[in-house]
Design brief:
By secondary structure, this protein is α+β, with helices and mostly antiparallel strands. Helix content is about 30%, strand content about 25%. It has 20 helices and 21 strands. Strands 6-9-10-21-20-19-16-11 form an 8-stranded mixed β-sheet, with helices on both faces. A 5-stranded mixed barrel has the order 1-2-3-5-4. Strand 7 (about 180-185) and strand 8 form a beta hairpin.
């Protein structure tokens, strides 16, 4: 028999009854039932119940063992007594009667309990992540992540893609976040950068003629953490294809992602035939470019109902500024004073003066109730009622101003109303493409035109559109759309991509409008710029966040819950003690002098 085990702790079944076995694993818990000891023994594969009574030669050792000790058990497989079968456990029909127990490793009292999985502060869990990972739920999440990644790889190979590894030590690239820099020992005063994404490399692979590339790529961005974003390191399904238009990317990747969601959705419905929603439409209907389409609420522009109305607050705003619009947020079933007041209070907590509303109750009918209804009058109130498709018992909330300044708040209000009224179908995955992103945006801090999304994307209309918009001025440039798209699911952006700007003159022009001189473009993006001079195929692709996909499919609340060894919310690795100070010897070798005082 093997030194440590003949079976794993998840392998034994009724067919093994009567056979001898050897198991090794962790003591999950010990139960004393009237002098008979029950040990739940756990390993990676599952859990087996072990029994030792006073007649067993292993009984004295069984009395010694404690939670999380690592032990070896020899014994005989037997059927559990009638009434004690555990149908929730694959090994629930059997138990092992212990003949011998060997302690392989004792354990101190654990600071983070494994059995029962009680809530513990996150920093404590991350400091002892190796214990945290023993928990059944987290262990299962990590294994599901591996299965999801394996499925993605297989489906990408089946779709004709090849997996190419790209360098980790590279040059800085403008991907919208800060780089992690790595000082060079050999080249004094110079730095490598960890890749924010393999963007330039995957485009260069298209220049090299490889046609279809993918990679489960590690990416490094020095960003502030949040629930859907890891600080430091994350992984993405990185994709690039040659000789494609936007629809080719959609028709290739939509089936891959849909199939992965179908496989791991545990029976929950997954969108088939994803809608394509223009960016401007998404902002106006949902107040965000990553809408949760499980929420049926759609906002609408109702400005004309308030123009010249008796509700002077909105009417005067509309008269003074042509940019002012009034948006309506319908609330099915929200037509009670208590709910409307609660939403008004919520808006004030968001830093807003309030959230105006009309509610339609049986006693007032379509004329509506509330201060706004009283001021606009029954005809306008009824017109709003009809436009928004409302019924008696519903309400409608209103926000006014320049949509560029209030759309995010409107989107938050839509989300809050959906949650409060339980309008959201929690048990499905609603996927969609968001298309036609603005190519440029206004950088208020630097008072200049800047890239809105990925600077390597092709503007719709190409060089001709860039030149025409530049002649017209900033407003025309801000109206320019990109061959840029996002994949969204349940309120999260899970992928972003675009058709690339593969023409050198268009690339120089696009960066020039954003303030980068031709020589700067050539210096910063020399590899791509040179490659474009030697026959560049039209190409495009996307990158999907692995952690976000896994978070959605496992029902976890944050991406930290699906990563093996994540940093905390202050970007510290509590387990390994990083970041840490470097020794003077290391600093001298790297030609670095630290002048700032270390914090924390």
């Amino acid at each position: 028999m093997h030194r440590y085990r003949s079976h794993t702790c998840g392998a034994l079944r009724a067919a093994d009854i009567g056979s001898e076995t050897r198991l090794s694993g962790w003591v999950h818990r010990v139960r004393d039932h009237g002098g008979v000891l029950f040990i739940d023994l756990r390993d990676h594969y599952g859990l087996t119940q072990v029994v030792a009574d006073p007649d067993s030669p292993a009984f004295k050792m069984a009395e010694r063992v404690r939670s999380e000790w690592v032990i070896r058990i020899d014994g005989k497989v037997r059927q559990r007594p009638e009434g004690t079968v555990n149908p929730e456990l694959p090994t629930g029909e059997i138990e092992v009667y212990a003949a011998e127990i060997e302690v392989l490793s004792e354990a101190k009292e654990v600071p983070v309990p494994v059995f029962g999985e009680p809530d513990y502060p996150e920093d404590m869990r991350l400091t002892y992540r190796f214990l945290d990972l023993r928990r059944e739920s987290l262990h299962a999440v990590i294994m599901k992540r591996l299965a999801i990644t394996k499925s993605i790889r297989a489906r990408m190979h089946d779709a004709g893609f090849n997996e190419f590894p790209t360098p980790i030590l590279t040059a800085s690239s403008p991907e919208g976040a800060r780089d992690f820099l790595v000082p060079s020992r050999i080249h004094a005063g110079k730095f490598y950068a960890l890749p924010q994404a393999p963007q330039q490399y995957k485009q260069l692979l298209m220049m090299a003629g490889f046609d279809r590339y993918f990679q489960i790529a590690p990416c490094f961005r020095d960003e502030d953490p949040r629930a859907d974003r890891l600080p430091g390191e994350f992984y993405q399904l990185d994709v690039e294809m040659s000789f494609v238009e936007q629809e080719d990317v959609f028709s290739t990747m939509e089936p891959v992602i849909t199939a992965v969601f179908d496989e791991f959705a545990d029976g929950k419905p997954v969108t088939k035939g994803w809608p394509r929603i223009p960016y401007d439409t998404a902002i106006q209907k949902y107040g965000t470019d990553k809408p949760d389409l499980r929420n049926p609420i759609e906002m609408a522009d109702v400005t004309e109902h308030f123009r010249g109305s008796g509700f002077k607050v909105f009417a005067q705003m509309i008269e003074r500024d042509p940019k002012v619009r009034v948006w309506a947020i319908p609330a099915k079933g929200g037509g009670s004073r208590a709910f409307c007041d609660r939403m008004n209070g919520w808006a004030q907590k968001q830093g807003q003066p309030g959230l105006g509303y009309i509610m339609w109750r049986a006693e007032e009918g379509a004329a509506g109730a509330g201060p706004i209804a009283k001021n606009v009058g029954p005809e306008r109130s009824e017109a709003l009622f009809k436009q928004m498709g409302l019924a008696i018992g519903d309400a409608c909330f209103f926000t006014a101003g320049d949509p560029a300044k209030f759309y995010k708040f409107a989107g938050l209000a839509r989300d809050e109303i959906g949650h409060e009224l339980k309008l959201i179908d929690e048990d499905r995955f609603a996927l969609a493409w968001i298309v036609d992103f603005p190519f440029y945006e206004w950088n208020e801090d630097e008072k200049k035109i800047d890239f809105s999304h990925n600077p390597f994307s092709m503007p719709q209309g190409g060089l001709a559109a860039l030149e025409a918009a530049e002649k017209e001025g900033p407003e025309a440039l801000l109206r320019l759309k990109a061959h840029q798209y996002d994949m969204v699911c349940n309120g999260y952006e899970i992928a972003s991509g675009g058709i690339r700007n593969h023409k050198p003159d268009a690339m120089v022009k696009a960066f020039g409008i954003a303030g980068l001189a031709p020589e700067t473009v050539e210096a910063r993006f020399g590899a791509l710029y040179r490659a474009f001079q030697y026959g560049a195929p039209p190409h495009g692709g996307m990158a999907a966040g692995i952690e976000r996909i896994v978070m959605l499919l496992t029902g976890c609340k944050t991406v930290r819950d699906v990563a093996l060894f994540p940093m905390n919310q202050q970007a510290s690795d509590l387990l390994m003690g990083a970041p840490a100070e470097a020794s003077n010897k290391q600093l001298r070798e790297l030609h670095i002098r630290v002048t700032a005082e270390a914090k924390g």
